[in-house]
Amino acid sequence: MAGLVLCEPIELYNILNQVTKLSRLTEPNYLCLLDVRSKWEYDESHVITARRVKKKANKYLLPESVDLECVRYCVVYDNNTSTLEIVIKQEEEDDNNDDRPGLMPGAAVECGRALAHLTRHPVCILKGGYQSFSAMYHFFRTQKIIWMPQELDAFQPYPVEIVPGKIYLGNFRQACDPKIQKDLKIKAHVNVSMEAGPFFVDDADNLLHIKIEDSPEADLSPFLRHLCHFLEIHLHLGSVVLVFSTLGISRSCAAILAFLMHWNEQTLKKSWAYVKKCKNNMRPNRGLVAQLLEWEKVVLGDSVTDILDPRY
């Protein structure tokens, strides 16, 4: 039995926005997103790709064709469950309870427990439920129930979220998409590529353009202090920043890693693990990894991470 874990809204957001060549939502065994709210609530709106779980005779009925044993992420949500603990609920219908509270699990937790024995990975319970997620990511609400394979193929992921509500990591296409800028309330760009984007042109306060090639010979080091200063200023101002490169895999990831090492005064190893969790296909080239090791010396006074480890 894999058990249950709480899933923060940012985690589900990032799960929904993972890519290989296409969105990972196209993979049948990647994500099973289950909505345990009432039918009318589900029909009114739900998270994209979510399927409703019906309940009959106090048993949760999985949608057809779902094989949880093969699924990497199983995420369950209700309206607002925020804990895995049993919650206190008043049993109003019992006249003999002397106003003593009864103990009831939230619907998502109850469903998650029923499914946990079917999965290899822990069942994720969305913290704050649909209320929290839809308030933070209103653009991922839908009334669409059936997704055809070609529709999932055409789904355009959003940038992943690195610092909650403040710093996003993406690619050049996402940086050129006005809807994404509006939905995420982007107020500044860090462009780590040779291409020039359409936003914040000639606006040095809100655009940092680091022109380096996507090559192991590219030198990011001279820009790292300015990069960190730029991001710090916008964090203090409360501005939302999108950091991007052409594909959003190498140069922009290296920039994000350097900032997290500086901002949190932490090792490359710890920063790497965090960004990898946010963006599965992160892969800075070997030249940039070596520069990040040197940056670790600057930040911490010594190099701690072993970049010969295969994960780097």
UniProtKB/TrEMBL annotation:
<dbReference type="GO" id="GO:0004864">
    <property type="term" value="F:protein phosphatase inhibitor activity"/>
</dbReference>
<dbReference type="InterPro" id="IPR036873">
    <property type="entry name" value="Rhodanese-like_dom_sf"/>
</dbReference>
<dbReference type="InterPro" id="IPR020422">
    <property type="entry name" value="TYR_PHOSPHATASE_DUAL_dom"/>
</dbReference>
<dbReference type="InterPro" id="IPR029021">
    <property type="entry name" value="Prot-tyrosine_phosphatase-like"/>
</dbReference>
<dbReference type="GO" id="GO:2001244">
    <property type="term" value="P:positive regulation of intrinsic apoptotic signaling pathway"/>
</dbReference>
<dbReference type="InterPro" id="IPR053272">
    <property type="entry name" value="STY_interacting-like"/>
</dbReference>
<dbReference type="GO" id="GO:0001691">
    <property type="term" value="F:pseudophosphatase activity"/>
</dbReference>
<protein>
    <submittedName>
        <fullName>STYL1 protein</fullName>
    </submittedName>
</protein>
<dbReference type="InterPro" id="IPR001763">
    <property type="entry name" value="Rhodanese-like_dom"/>
</dbReference>
<dbReference type="InterPro" id="IPR000340">
    <property type="entry name" value="Dual-sp_phosphatase_cat-dom"/>
</dbReference>
<dbReference type="GO" id="GO:0062030">
    <property type="term" value="P:negative regulation of stress granule assembly"/>
</dbReference>
<feature type="domain" description="Tyrosine-protein phosphatase">
    <location>
        <begin position="158"/>
        <end position="301"/>
    </location>
</feature>
<dbReference type="GO" id="GO:0005739">
    <property type="term" value="C:mitochondrion"/>
</dbReference>
<dbReference type="Pfam" id="PF00581">
    <property type="entry name" value="Rhodanese"/>
</dbReference>
<dbReference type="GO" id="GO:0019903">
    <property type="term" value="F:protein phosphatase binding"/>
</dbReference>
<dbReference type="Pfam" id="PF00782">
    <property type="entry name" value="DSPc"/>
</dbReference>
